[in-house]
Amino acid sequence: MIRVGLVDFDTSHVVAFTQRWNHVGCSEDQWIEGAKVVAGCPGVSYLSPERVPGFTEDLRGYGVEIVDRPEDLIGQIDAVCIESVDGSVHLERAVPFLEAGLPTFVDKPFTCSLAHAKEIAALAEKHGAALFSSSSLRFGREVIALHEDSEENGPVIGADAYSPASLHPRNPGLFHYGVHGVETLFAIM
């Protein structure tokens, strides 16, 4: 069983991921086998601080141990998910886990700068840590079906993709929610 840690609780993703991995609060067809969220750090949110206390209580109710600092997770987990909605803090949050060689998922947006993205990737390579980031829309059933049916329907030669794209100064441009449409387009093409 892979022991997963979560960092930053200002997104509903921490609840949704925990429900699926820990088999609580969702239907059995949504369960994911082989991993369990065992601990997490609520962190500080600059975008949605009002969401952190409720999600923290949700995770406590699912049996997740709550720690004060992200670094406190090291030694208790086999992999980590960096979940802050604020992409500008992802480098800071990822550093201790990458330096420890832990597989690290950085939720969207990966970062809000090319320099931070390069630094995160370099740290992962240097310490042999698996690294992944994505919008969940990349794995939408409709996107997967397009690829599965490509022999019958032919290759995709053009596409329009859209998604909500609200703006926030800490995640400028498409980094905030526009990334969902961009990810969908990349997956389709």
What does this molecule look like?
The chain is an alpha/beta fold and 189 residues long. The protein contains seven helices and six strands. Strands 3-2-1-4-5-6 form a six-stranded parallel β-sheet, sandwiched between helices. Strand 4 (79-82), helix 3 and strand 5 (104-106) form a beta-alpha-beta unit. The chain is globular and about 50 Å long.
Q: How many angstroms separate the termini?
A: 35 Å
Query: Which class do the helix and strand fractions yield?
Result: alpha/beta
Shape: globular
Strand content: 5-15%
Q: How are the secondary structure elements laid out?
A:
Blueprint: E1 2-7, H1 13-22, E2 35-41, H2 52-61, E3 65-66, E4 79-82, H3 90-99, E5 104-106, H4 114-127, E6 131-132, H5 141-148, H6 150-153, H7 179-188
Helix pairs in contact: 3-4
